[in-house]
Design brief:
The complex is a heterotrimer of chains A (313), B (316) and C (251). Chain A is built from 13 helices and two strands, in the order ααααββααααααααα. Chain A has 313 residues and is mainly α. Chain A has a domain of 179 residues: MetI-like fold (Orthogonal Bundle). Chain A has a two-stranded antiparallel ribbon. In chain A, helix 10 runs parallel beside helix 11. The N and C termini of chain A lie close together (12 Å). Chain B is α+β, with helices and mostly antiparallel strands. In chain B, 61% of the residues lie in helices and 8% in strands. Chain B contains 13 helices and four strands. Chain B is elongated and about 85 Å long. Chain C contains eight helices and nine strands. Chain C has a six-stranded mixed sheet with strand order 5-6-7-3-8-9, sandwiched between helices. In chain C, strands 2-1-4 form a three-stranded antiparallel sheet, covered by helices on one side. The radius of gyration of chain C is 19 Å and the shape is globular. The chains are: A mainly alpha (313), B alpha+beta (316), C alpha/beta (251).
């Protein structure tokens, strides 16, 4: 329990640290939301100053940070100048989209890579396994950016899948949404596969070569039982850690795929906010993504704690 | 696959790619900004052999006109190949402004590859400095430095990249953009090398020969320079091969999103952004060649990294 | 008036604390507990005791590699004139260095003399330890155990030390090598007047080289006497154990 409490505290420290750094950074930023207006000769300097004062942009840093903290406490997470409203609801609107994509990709990814990895470890140094290695290397080298564009091109050329967005005009049903999900989820999963398979393969491989496994095999324990009851639980440990590590890559991939396919997640919100210099939204998305990463790692830590008696003892 | 053979495969991909990009001025048939307004979105020109290579002129709707024949010329006008005007040889087609895609891929590669390489050098420099300092001096300094470094791992890398980019000027000149990109991209991903260097430094600092040198009056700077830095070379090399493709991809992504090096400087990311448009996906698939170039480059580096990794600790 | 002793140690204590993140400080391990002794020029003191008795900690404190918790160390000379030779010769030489770089390192650090000067001094000191000058261009990790140890001693000699602390430096050498190095040490002492502190768990070896022996146990000096008289005057049970063990091995 103390272990988990420490991890939570660590997570809190990270969140605070990131928010402080972000505020410091935003202070260094040349210009703000109203900088575009500055170029407009019709808007007077006085108006700009008034606008800035109205939104508290002219207050000193600690004051702004404190205001933001209070707003977090209320659930507002700051005030978006572009949307003229609290950031919180904006995030709440988009988070499910990102979660859906990453969740599905994670599930599919692990579902596919665990069997593939085990098969690959069990059949080392055979040519089917070698060709799998090559395919995975190739897949690893295809950036998600390219993958998504290629899939979109395919969709457009064959016309069998929609080329983006959440719903086609005129349809609002689940089936339609599912069709729109195909390209984003496929892209993310294909990007995840090489990393996962490689790690599953090496984890199972190492466990298979460990003395306890060799001893068990020498005792005549059949291959399948050996694999599932003896080797897999040991291989689980590094894989749970991998889940936490690959989460960051997955979230980044999701950002890109959402922007590319027009899927309504945090990605497009983030990008628009950057171009609009809506720093409140930028900060909100940063905090959201950090929280996901921390939560994911914490979940991995909890699983690790339960799965590995050595940590408890 | 024996390691030697694999290195050759990786280098076979990387050396021609870097060479062609480096000498884009020679290998590209056209300048990157040269527009051919009469030939927007021209498909790739087909080369015929008689046995010497030649191309046909194009009609208004891009059909080949057998009455106009232009021979391919080599080493003419300081370029590897080209053809006499008014003929054109667009090996990879043209874009919306009639600019030769092949030439732009070659010139554009400069930005992407240069950013990747320089950003890697930058990140490794920071990582080395950070890791050696934390590992050598240990104690409180170490704890503070590594905790601080962790903040850079708290966000997913693309979110971090974009967030840092967000707080910097949006409209900047290409030169400024390049330097800025290098600094930003390097700020994502220096932490892992720093950790590895720190670990190595920690183990080295306790070695008796370092203590002996300390007993002779060796100052920290001397000890670091003479006993620790030489041992980091192997580590830095492997990290470099891992970071370079990552960073090339980061540049391509940023420019694709409109936050990188902008016009008129060509870059693979910018070209992919143009290719992304609906009508291009439908009808102008040759615009995706920068993607292929990125893929091949990444493939080469990924392969190189694997080979180096295998040689350091062979996977059973 | 007898000359001032070369080394005076008074009340030296060292406690190691385990670093804790938060909460009270963990109880420490007392490695040295009120250690006191003196050493005169040109003499050899052996410090004998079982593992964990604090011998190495004492050596490190003397050499300045650890800071004592309390107590006083007074050395009649510059810090660099007290040299420490480690237990494992291989570990005390940077494997990537060539022998010349190993030996010349003290001079390089002090920034004295030109390359040629350093080389000359290195050759001179190698002669003193019985190594040929040709050794200088070989990679340090390719030398034999005995050569490495002699190289380490040569390196220490380069700065013309008044005191050399040998921390279990003869362990791990085969008997003939031990004999060689021991002879070398005695020879150097008579020629150059170097004082030694010899740290060992081997009483016999200590008795052979030292004029005075101190027995350590759990961080304290429990017995101290002239080597020749130790057997006769041994009163502490540990001393008697050590003597008995040495005799068993001798027979």
């Amino acid at each position: 329990m103390r272990y988990l409490a420490r991890r939570l505290l660590h997570g809190a420290f990270l969140l605070v640290g990131v928010s402080v750094l972000s505020f410091l950074f935003s202070d260094l930023a040349p210009g703000d939301f109203y900088s575009e207006l500055q170029a407009d000769p019709r808007v007077s300097a006085a108006t700009l100053a008034a606008l800035r004062a109205q939104n508290g942009l002219d207050r000193p840093l600690p004051v702004r940070y404190a205001t933001w903290l209070r707003s977090v406490g209320r659930g507002d997470f700051g005030y978006s100048l572009a949307y003229q409203g609290p950031v919180g609801p904006l995030l709440a609107q988009r988070i499910p989209g990102t979660l859906l994509l990453t969740g599905l990709a994670t599930a599919l990814g692990w579902l596919l890579s665990v069997p593939l990895g085990i098969w690959s470890a069990a059949r080392r140094r055979s040519w089917p396994e070698a060709s799998l290695k090559v395919i995975l290397s190739v897949l690893l080298s295809i950036p998600e950016l390219l993958m998504a564009i290629v899939l979109l091109a395919l969709a457009v050329q064959t016309g069998c899948l929609p080329a983006g967005g959440l719903h086609s005009p005129g349809h609002a049903d689940t089936l339609d949404a599912l069709r729109h999900l195909v390209i984003p989820v496929t892209t993310l999963t294909l990007g995840l596969l090489p990393i996962l398979v490689r790690h599953v393969r090496s984890a199972v491989s190492e466990a298979l070569d460990a003395p306890f496994a060799l001893a068990a095999a020498a005792h005549g324990i059949p291959r399948r039982r050996l694999l599932f009851r003896h080797v897999l639980p040991v291989a689980l440990n590094p894989l749970i850690s991998l889940f936490g590590l690959s989460l960051g890559t997955l979230l980044s991939g999701s950002l890109l795929v959402e922007v590319l396919t027009g899927w309504p997640g945090l990605g497009p919100l983030f990008l628009d906010a950057i171009f609009a210099r809506d720093y409140a939204v930028v900060l909100g998305v940063v905090m959201a993504s950090t929280s996901f990463l921390i939560a994911g790692n914490l979940a991995a830590d909890v699983l690790l704690y339960r799965a590995d008696p050595r940590i408890r003892g | 696959m024996p390691a030697v053979g694999s290195i050759r495969v990786a280098l076979a991909l990387l050396i021609p790619m870097h060479g062609a990009v480096l000498f884009a001025g020679f290998f590209a048939p056209y300048d990157y900004a040269e527009q051919h307004r009469d030939y927007p979105y021209a498909p790739p020109t087909r080369i015929h052999f008689k046995p010497l290579p030649y191309v046909y002129g194009l009609t208004g709707d891009y059909q080949e006109d057998p009455t106009r024949v232009y021979a391919l010329r080599f080493f003419a006008g300081g370029r590897f190949f080209g053809t006499d005007p008014p003929g054109h040889v667009f090996l990879l087609g043209t874009d919306g402004y009639g600019r030769d895609i092949l030439s732009r891929v070659l010139y554009g590669g400069r930005i992407s590859l240069a950013t990747g390489l320089v950003a890697t050098a930058w990140a490794l420099a920071i990582g080395l400095l950070w890791g050696v300092t934390a590992g050598f001096f240990g104690g409180r300094l170490d704890a503070v430095m590594m905790r601080g470094a962790e903040l850079f791992l708290a966000l997913p890398w693309l979110y971090l990249l974009l967030a840092v980019r967000a707080f910097l000027p949006l409209h900047i000149s290409p030169v400024q953009a390049f330097l800025l990109l290098v600094a930003i991209i390097g700020s994502v991903g220096w932490v892992r090398p720093a950790r590895l260097v720190r670990g190595l430094t920690l183990s080295l600092v306790e070695r008796p020969y370092v203590e002996a040198a300390r007993a002779f009056g060796g100052r920290p700077l001397y000890l670091i320079r003479r006993h620790i830095l030489p041992e980091t070379k192997g580590l830095l090399l492997t990290q470099a091969t891992i970071l370079i493709p990552y960073y090339i991809l980061a540049e391509v992504t940023l420019t694709f999103l409109g936050l990188g090096v902008g016009e008129p400087v060509p870059s693979w990311g910018g070209m992919l952004a143009e290719a992304r448009q609906y009508h291009s996906l439908v009808a102008h698939l040759w615009m995706l060649t920068p993607g292929a170039a990125t893929f091949l480059t990444l493939l080469g580096y990924v392969h190189l990294a694997e080979v180096l990794q295998d040689s350091r600790d062979p996977i059973r | 008036m007898p000359p001032e002793p070369l080394l005076t140690v008074r009340g030296l204590s060292k406690t190691f604390h385990r670093r804790r993140r938060w909460g009270a400080q963990a109880p420490g391990v007392t490695a040295l507990d009120d250690v006191s002794f003196t050493l005169n020029r040109g003499r050899t003191l052996a410090i004998v005791g079982p593992s964990g008795s604090g011998k190495s900690t004492l050596a490190r404190c003397l050499a300045g590699l650890e800071t004592p918790t309390s107590g006083e160390i007074r050395f009649a000379g510059a810090p660099v004139e007290m040299q420490l030779i480690f237990q494992q010769p291989a570990a005390s030489l940077n494997p990537r260095f060539i022998a010349a770089e190993v030996v010349e390192e003290p001079l390089v650090i002090q920034g004295r003399g030109s390359r040629a000067d350093r080389r000359r001094k290195a050759e001179l000191v190698l002669e003193k330890v019985g190594l040929p000058a040709s050794v200088l261009d070989r990679r340090s990790h390719l030398l034999s155990g005995g050569e490495k140890q002699r190289l380490a001693i040569a390196r220490a000699l380069l700065v013309e030390p008044k005191l050399i602390i040998l921390d279990e430096s003869l362990v791990g050498l085969d008997v003939s090598l031990q004999h060689q190095v021991a002879t070398l040490l005695t020879d150097l002492q008579s020629r150059l007047g170097v004082a030694y502190i010899l740290i060992s768990h081997d009483l016999d070896l200590a008795a052979g080289l030292a004029s005075e022996i101190a027995v350590m146990d759990h961080g304290r000096i429990v017995e101290q006497a002239l080597a020749a008289r130790l057997k006769a005057t041994a009163s502490h049970p540990l001393t008697r154990e050590l003597i008995a063990a040495a005799e068993v091995l001798a027979t």
